[in-house]
Amino acid sequence: MLRPTARVGAVAVALAVGAGVAVAHPGHGEETFNALVFSKTEGFRHDSIPAGIEAIETLGAENGFDVTATEDAAVFTDEELAQYEVVIWLSTTGDVLNDDQQAAFERYIAGGGGYAGVHAAADTEYDWPWYGELVGGYFAGHPEPQQATVTVEDPDHPSTATLPAEFERHDEWYNYAPNPRESAHVLATLDEGSYSGGTMGEDHPISWCQDVEAGRAWYTGMGHTQESYAEPEFLAHLLGGIQTAAGAVEADCSGDAGGGEGEPGGGEQPLAEDFEKVTLDDNTSNPMELAVAEDGRVFYIDRKGDVKVIGTDGAASTAGTVPVYTGQEFGLLGLALDPDFADNGWLYLYYSPAADEPVDRVSRFTVEGDSLDLASEQVVLTVDTQRDECCHAGGALEFDTQGNLYIATGDNTNPFASDGYAPIDEQEGRAAWDAQRTSANSNTLNGKVLRITPQDDGSYTVPDGNLFAEGTENTRPEIYAMGFRNPFRIGIDPTTDGLYVADYGPDAGNVDPNRGPDGRVEWNIVNEPGFYGWPYCVGDNTPYNDYDFATGTSGDTFDCSAPVNDSPNNTGVAELPPAIPAELWMGKSTTGSPEIGGSGAPMTSGAYQFDAELDSDRKWPEEFDGSVVFADWNDSRLFQVTLDEGRDQVSSVTRIFEEMSFNRPHALQFGPDGALYVIEWGSGFGGDNADSGVYRVDYVQGNRSPVARITADRTSGPAPLEVAFDSEGSHDPDGSDVTFSWDLDGDGTEDATGPTASHTYTDPGKYTARLTVTDADGRTAVSNLEITSGNTAPEVTVNGPVDGGFFSFGDTIAYDVTVTDPEDGEIDCQNVVVQPALGHDEHSHGYEQHRGCSGTFPLPGDEGHIGANIFGTVTVTYTDQGNGDAPPLTTTEVLVLQPKHREAEHFDATGRLESAGGGGDPGVSVEDTGDSAGGGKNIGHIDNGDWWAWEPTNLTNIDEVGLRAATNQLGATVEVRTGNPDTGPTVATIEMESTGDWQVYQDFTGALGGDSLTDSGPLYFVKTSGELNVNWVEFIGQGVTEP
């Protein structure tokens, strides 16, 4: 029901509409025209369609136009359409017209006909681009129906003239792609802050119009409910749209009178092309954190223990290696430079010692030149942990301007048996599954942000103003803020010393009234000590339910205003401070930050501080002063978060650098030069990623730096070692010629010029080969590559399980590994480390490590990931013994194991056969499913020749493949092909018969056969005939599971 938010609006509606819905428009009087209501559906069918037809017929009778209603697409001919001034597409869905009917409708509009689209008309004809342009935007998902605020942008258009300037209404609110404002004249918009589930940000059109050739188009996203068609206000809106689309009433739909809000940050923004991404080191494996010294050196750490330094000349080297434990999510995790680093050379690390004691440490080391003095270690702080169960180690470090060190720690709690909701298992022996023992425990250092002041002697003091005063019983004075799950990244505001905390959330896909909210991540402004909610409240202080894990019984929701920790695993105070809500939060099915939408992996920088006096040719412009860069690790998006004057509230969130490529941004730091430094984790799940790297984003406004790329035919081997180098891929993005300079032995002198080079390393040892590329304007770029002479990297062969093999969660899987190393000779199998993990979207959660050349491991699942994109990963690592002056080398192999039950919407790729015709975008679409068996989403709009695929797969010991499918036609056929969708062999054919409806599903199977079943590679599902929707895929057989 529409509810005006201003009394004057309500009066205006009452005066304009009165008791009926007939509205006279000046200068036109009683125009007569013919309207065709078309309501055919080939997808979801709205139960409001009959009410809509009846309402439009009544509008016609009361306002002098004739109405014909049909679901027969045969009416779409030139002769039939010529009888109507307007065709009303009433909540149509799917592919409703054939090619001839589409062509007729295109001619109808071009000749002066009218189109009026209502609600699901935007969920129609995805493979007909002309229709998408006519509507103005396609349906791109929706939350549950709810109340929202609508703002009228054009009060002069007949369809919005009688509506209040702003009003509230209950409806099903569609998101659209692309934004209709790009082509249409917007009439009304949604306030995404007034409801949850919007994903379009500050500019969310909900009604619009446009002129199309000689014709007219009008659309409203409202009208989902049956009740809509009895509401006078909505009917007046609908009437104005029909009349103007018919041409019976004049309307200005040229351009965009609504204008839009422009960039949310306000003011003229710098252009994206004024920034460039500069490679600092792309010869990385597991880069975790970075810090930039005043002298321009960049320090970064590798999770496996290396501390690296990139010099001002671009040379990268290893300053030192700290022995670390890397099971679960532990390792070398945090890095910070002392505020007086230029004078004292002190560097702080947060790491997990290699010894068996389950602790993490904050230690101070001294850097001398570009070397880390391991003997200088001063253990500043020890954090007790448990290493029996995964997950959440945190580890980020940041200094404020007063010399205080902030330390972020994770909840050190297993999340995999909590259905994706709050892990609060209070059963005996289940403490590792209870975050109340850590995050909500005032007497531990886990799940917190700590604040201490390091002293010159390696000790620390606690500054005034932390959450608990020293001496308070059952508390730790180091705690500044508590109630975090995995505050993986933190950043400082150098103006206010405020802290920004990006906290990872759980994985529940949906809200459960008996358990709590969907999985939500947070971005917090932590400018005061306090309790930030976990595991009782999350996001905007949405509470979880208390839950008895022994009986599976849900209790009342927690009180966020007065949380009480009564867990038997709590050693701290019971009564906690009121929970502080997050400033930004993003969920799996809801969002409090529509500009970002969903996010599973938040990252943050500190606040940028513009310095007009700073002499830097790369510093960011003043428009970013006080802003923070937020990044989503999963999908590599970056956002500018603009704050208010007090730096305690978000003013706007704006997507930035859409055209710039990032590969899982892992850490973000503004340097003293005013540029943004970025670590990219790369595309692999467990690390050791060849496409990881350390980069800098400069503001240049002119000539850009060249790009340097270095490759070699070998990077290790016995001495003397001859290596051939190549600069392929190096170039100047501005198009000028480049020159090459090679320092191949790391002594700082030029050894060769030209695009290729070679060198013989006579003496054993580790060397850094450096390529410098210079453009015509003298700008340079550097690329480094480490070469080891005198030691050969080991060769690791995983004999089993096969890469891409199939399993079920909970299975036990056997592994067998062969390692060869010419220098080590006989292999000590205890040095072979096997790390199984739960893969989830773009990341993985490690389980317990196993050692040995053969053995078994379990792959448990997580009930909270039901319907999620989950799979298994196995990382196998071997580090050799080195050889004299040649250091040890490590080789890692990573396998992906596929679950036997695969939700279809989680395909890795989709497309269309080269030989296939058809219009529209190639590949499948994802939509909400109506399957009574659940599943959440299905894929649909599958044209002949369209395919979807997963990679890697290996069908060893799989006998059949099945589809959970629906079709309203005579049937459909899907062929399963390996290797290539066009030319790969067909290993199964699945024939589907009609299920009677597009959302009535049945199970269909096809037997597997052929020589390529044991190959690891992509697997394609190609639709060759008919029409269908697919909910999930089943792989039937033993797979890689141990018999």
UniProtKB/TrEMBL annotation:
A Pfam family matched in the record: GSDH
CBM6 domain mapped to chain residues: 900-1036
GO biological process, one term: carbohydrate metabolic process
Alphabetical UniProt keywords: Signal
Annotated coiled-coil segments of the chain: none
Signal sequence coordinates: 1-24
Xref: InterPro entries: 6-blade_b-propeller_TolB-like, CBM6, Cellulose-bd_IV, Class_I_gatase-like, Galactose-bd-like_sf, Glc/Sorbosone_DH, Ig-like_fold, PKD/Chitinase_dom
Domain of life: Bacteria
GO molecular function: carbohydrate binding
SUPFAM superfamilies: Class I glutamine amidotransferase-like, Galactose-binding domain-like, PKD domain, Soluble quinoprotein glucose dehydrogenase
Keyword Signal included in the entry's annotation: yes
Skewed-composition ranges (Gly residues): 256-268
Stretches assigned to the PKD domain: 706-788
Region (Disordered): 252-271, 744-764
Protein name: PKD domain-containing protein
Gene source species: Streptomyces mimosae
